[in-house]
From TrEMBL:
The keyword rRNA processing does not apply. Belongs to the FAD-dependent oxidoreductase 2 family. FRD/SDH subfamily. Pfam families: FAD_binding_2 (PF00890). Keywords: FAD, Flavoprotein, Oxidoreductase, Signal. It comes from Ferrimonas sediminicola. This is Flavocytochrome c. Its cofactor is FAD. GO terms for molecular function: FMN binding; oxidoreductase activity, acting on the CH-CH group of donors. NCBIfam families: flavo_cyto_c. It comes from the Bacteria. Residues 6-448 form the FAD-dependent oxidoreductase 2 FAD-binding domain.
Length: 471
């Protein structure tokens, strides 16, 4: 080996950084590698929202939540396909992990939000509305705790001993994504184990199409360019059991008028979906529950097509009050992704919506809010208010590939399980999006941060306890 550590963490997103800090806290010599030129993966470019059951924020707002209720919400969204043991482990760890993140410098906004599919408000969000508000403090903590971090270092295969235990990784050091042959080979040893926190494969068009042929290149993705299946394939090559790979989440809050995660995702999550409505431009009418889970919303949006099958982009909108918590509003307006209209007539004119129908729909919505019941689609109205006056802010919407529910099968010690024996592959752990099963058919919003942090720490706690080999 060129270098030897106790634990090697592959990937520097929520899962990888949480694993690294946890293992270093417990005194181990830790290396984090990431193939990209920047640390943080998808984690650093997402909205930084974390679902937490039983947070101090909820207590202050008088919201009574429980781990059981969060588990039940995620089971409903997952269409019952979830790995219940892992699901419980994640939900159970959220409150403590949110405080752990705070102890390293993450700052949550002072209020709690209600995201789609959760039966009550339980979402904390970083001050920055970005995962960077979690990743940056964790990187600082890791460095302080003596964790070694190499970027542009790609795992290309595992190193196993005679008993098939994973004892290290072969990497390309000085790797330039996506140049396959760039960099030079190095062998890195791991006395206790390797933790795979390598994320999903949302940007790997051929691989995602093998799982779900309709996910063609016409669908954009919110993921960072390195989100491919290379690491997953290496795990499969040494016997890891891939599950739920065809369960690929489409984010229902994105806009066709910009690339990637962009400005619409945060705007729609914080504003339109919580405080506004979404309508079909042809009829001016709502056509789904804006607080349903992501799968239900994305599938509903994708039914909006013309006779040739081409998308007819729906419009999501809210007013000034509804947009107050959307941090990307200014940028969205600047790039013309979000449009502003003073009156509903103007809004209708901007998108060619029949104005009388749009106004009738808004009036009907306001009546639902007054009655405390959404008679169209049964949306929960706990934080809803009437939409009475402009100015209005609106976006065109179309889903993008966002998250892979599938990945390798793990046990509650975060050990990767072998396809044939269903026993742990010695020395191999996995956490975060790289694993499969926790979310079943559809992950609820803000549950990836929860999963990444809780399972990353869980994997580290297990690996720390492993017998150290003398390599
Ligand atoms: P999670 O939210 O589960 O932590 P992320 O997508 O945020 O997942 O992070 C995964 C990280 O893993 C990314 O930064 C990505 O570049 C890195 N990664 C993926 N495959 C490899 C690999 N083969 N070698 C090194 N790093 C990898």
């Amino acid at each position: 080996f060129d270098e030897i550590f106790d634990i090697i963490v592959v990937g520097s997103g929520f899962a990888g950084m949480s694993a690294a800090v946890q293992a270093a806290e417990e005194g181990d010599k830790v290396l984090v590698i990431d193939k990209m030129p920047v640390f943080g993966g998808n984690s650093t470019i997402n909205g930084g929202a974390m679902a937490v059951a039983g947070s101090d924020h909820q207590a202050k707002a008088g919201i009574e939540d429980s781990v059981e209720l969060m588990v039940s919400d995620m089971l409903t969204s997952g269409r019952g396909m979830n790995d219940v043991e892992m699901l419980k482990l994640v939900c159970d760890g959220t409150a403590e992990s949110a405080r752990w993140l705070e102890s390293y410098g993450t700052v949550w906004k002072p209020f709690v939000q209600h995201f789609g599919g959760h039966s009550l408000p339980r979402v904390l969000q970083t001050r920055e509305s970005s995962g960077a508000g979690i990743i940056r403090p964790l990187i600082a903590a890791a460095k302080k705790a003596g964790v070694t971090m190499y970027k542009q270092t790609k795992l290309i295969e595992f190193v196993q001993d005679g008993q098939q235990r994973v004892v290290g990784v072969k990497v390309k050091s000085g790797y330039f994504f996506p140049k396959e042959k760039s960099g030079s080979d190095k062998l890195l040893g791991a006395r206790k184990g390797v933790i795979m926190a390598t994320g999903g494969f949302g940007r790997d068009i051929p691989f995602r199409q093998m799982q779900q042929p309709r996910l063609t290149s016409e669908l954009d993705s919110t993921n960072h360019p390195g989100a491919n299946a290379d690491a997953l394939k290496q795990m499969m090559l040494i016997g890891a059991n891939p599950i739920h790979l065809d369960q690929i989440q489409l984010g229902p809050w994105s806009s066709p008028d910009e690339k990637g995660f962009g400005t619409a995702s945060q705007f729609n999550t914080a504003a339109t979906y919580q405080n506004g409505i979404v309508v079909d431009v042809r009829t001016g009418e709502r056509f789904f529950n804006e607080l349903a889970d992501r799968k239900a919303r994305a599938e509903a949006i994708m039914t909006r097509r013309d006779d040739q099958g081409q998308p007819v982009y729906p419009i999501g909108f809210t007013n000034e009050k509804g947009a107050a918590k959307a941090q990307t509003l200014e940028w969205g307006l600047k790039y013309d992704v979000i449009k502003k209209a003073d009156t509903l007539d103007d809004l209708a004119g901007l998108y060619g919506i029949p104005a009388d129908k749009l106004k009738a729909q808004v009036a009907q919505w306001n009546q639902f809010v007054r009655d405390g019941e959404d008679k169209q689609f049964g949306r929960p109205l706990m934080q809803a208010f009437e939409l009475t006056e402009g100015p209005w802010y609106a976006v065109r919407m179309w889903p993008k590939v966002h998250y892979c529910m599938g990945g390798v099968r793990v046990n509650t010690h975060s050990q990767v399980l072998h396809l044939i024996s269903d026993k742990p592959i010695a020395g191999l752990y996995a956490a975060g999006e790289a694993t499969g099963g926790i979310h079943g058919a559809s992950r609820l919003g803000a549950c990836a941060v929860a999963e990444g942090v809780v399972t990353g720490r869980n994997a580290a706690r297990s690996a720390v306890k492993a017998d150290a080999l003398s390599l």
